[in-house]
Design goal:
The protein is α/β, with parallel strands linked by helices. It has 18 helices and 19 strands. It has two domains: about 220 residues, Rossmann fold; about 280 residues, UDP-N-acetylmuramoyl-L-alanine:D-glutamate ligase.
């Protein structure tokens, strides 16, 4: 599903007006009709219900005024609160406001010093419509609006936002101070990026998208992952065999982190990989129960990690393998980093680089690797690891998840899976934002499972960007299904038990 920024949406509409010769008033009328259709579907018969519309001075406010008029025609008891400087109404807003005046609709101007009166009045509503800013907001609300938002948020009735809740930046989801908390956000034309990125997503409630009555043309790069991405996996032919779905080598684990290697290897097979070989330090070899995985012990350092003694063994294991997954549980010892760098220099096929292996990716090393090799790499950092890679603060990475992931992917020609809520997958000409997952997955081992699932998608023939995106989606969806028994106490391995259901 396409996702756009607020600025992109305004540009899309402007181009459509010019290309099709559309009247903004007609588009506003269409928008109002689509919004009312959603309201009827979500809240049933609106006749007799007290619907209070919060209308700003721009065209988002104009959409709200159209909704008010159409609801009036349906028998709703409509009240409109005019927010902002009424001397600065857009042309279309002014036209629709004049119509409401002629119809005798109850209009009230929101002014400082009247919050007590407004609190009482709004408290009578059955439904509140937020049409103050939409995609036109950035920064922070002024003191008067912050007070008004606080009043509205205290009202115990459903709130529906048009395009984006007031106080939320439609481009990056940032909230500078206060913002309205919607139960439902009706996105016009395309889903807005600010409604799927946190913290904006928490204020948007449930998102729905409606068309505007005419086709919109947009060649953007941002997409929300939905279950349609499951169709990317090729159908399995009846004569397939284990070799058809690739042989993945997982280099992982250390004395303290045998579980990381185990989870990654299991995830490769659960995700549909044909064969998986686990290369682990010999000291933890006996901790792996016999199962479908091939577990190969390699020489280890005195600290129980891979190192220079195991380099030649690992290079030999790489021969004949289709996919490499490296990093989970390796530790960040200098000798480990040295070995990881040497292995990556020698590897010429798709690769997932996770966790401790990311420590090997300093600028000097990245520059030393040919671009065609890096083009097959998928990096899976969490925000802290991403901050180290880009030389920035973790808070900055979280605040600019899209830009940070895209910039790094573009600079180095890799696919970046920036983990978190929501996970962002950037590479090439597209960026995906994940729609699955839950707080219960914030637990040790989740990243190891994700590494294995992405490797499994690579082993089945997907290109790195799609493999990364599909692995992320499936991981989150499996976690959502496992969390039906409760988020608290969810273990990383629990999602492995539901992956098969997601992929069936």
């Amino acid at each position: 599903m396409k996702v756009v920024t607020g600025v992109e949406m305004q540009s899309i509409e402007k181009k459509a007006f010019a290309r099709l010769g559309l009247s903004p008033l007609l588009v506003m009328e269409n928008a109002g009709s689509r919004i009312v259709e959603v309201l009827k579907r979500e809240y049933g018969c609106l006749s007799g219900k007290r619907v209070h519309v919060l209308a700003g001075t721009g065209n988002n406010g104009g959409d709200g005024l159209v909704v008010a008029r159409q609801l009036l025609a349906l028998g709703a008891r409509v009240k409109v609160y005019l927010v902002g400087n009424q001397q600065k109404l857009s042309k279309e807003n002014s036209t629709n406001l004049e119509i409401l005046r002629k119809l005798g609709v109850d209009l009230q101007t929101v002014e400082a010093g009247q919050m007590g009166k407004l609190r009482f009045s709004l408290g009578l509503a059955d439904l509140i419509i937020d049409a103050i800013f939409g995609t036109g907001f950035a920064g922070t609300l002024n003191e008067e609006l912050e007070s008004f938002v606080t009043v509205v948020n205290d009202i115990k009735c459903p709130l529906v936002a048009i395009d984006c809740p007031t106080g939320v930046n439609a481009t990056n989801g940032q909230v500078g101070g206060q913002a309205l908390r919607a139960d439902l956000t009706i996105n016009l034309g395309f889903l807005k990026l600010g409604c799927v990125l946190y913290p904006g997503k928490a204020y948007a409630g449930r998102n729905v998208v409606v068309d505007l009555g005419f086709p919109l043309v947009h060649e953007g790069r941002h997409f929300l992952l939905t279950e349609e991405c499951l169709d990317w996996l090729p159908k399995r032919k009846p004569w397939s065999h284990k070799g058809t779905f690739g042989h993945t080598l997982v280099i992982a684990g250390s004395k303290a982190y045998a579980g990381a290697a185990s989870l990654s290897g299991q995830a490769v097979l659960r995700g549909g990989g044909g064969v998986v070989t686990l290369a682990v330090p010999c000291g933890i070899y006996d901790r792996f129960e016999p199962d479908e995985r091939i577990v190969v012990p390699v020489s280890q350092t005195d600290e129980g990690t891979i190192g220079v003694p195991s380099l030649q063994e690992l290079l030999e294991l790489m021969e004949g393998k289709d996919v490499l997954a490296i990093g989970p549980g390796l530790t960040r010892r200098p000798e480990v980093i040295q070995v990881v760098q040497e292995l990556l220099r020698k590897w010429d096929a798709p690769c997932v680089i996770d966790a401790d292996a990311l420590m090997a990716l300093d600028t000097a090393f990245l520059k030393s690797v040919p671009e065609d090799k890096r083009g097959q790499w998928i990096l899976t950092p969490h925000p802290g690891e991403m901050a180290r890679l880009v030389g920035n603060e973790t808070a900055k990475v979280n605040a600019e998840r899209i830009e940070v992931a895209e910039d790094f992917a573009h600079e180095w020609g890799v696919v970046v899976v920036l983990k978190g809520a929501p996970t962002v997958i950037a590479g090439g000409e597209r960026t995906y934002v994940n729609s699955t997952g839950n707080p219960g997955m914030a637990t040790a081992g989740s990243g190891d499972v994700l590494t294995g699932l992405i490797a499994a998608m690579l082993s089945q023939g997907l290109d790195p960007l799609r493999a990364a995106a599909l692995g992320v989606y499936v991981h989150g969806k499996a976690g959502d299904r496992a969390a039906l028994r409760g988020e608290r106490g969810l273990k990383a391995g629990d999602s492995l038990e539901t992956v098969q259901e997601i992929l069936s």
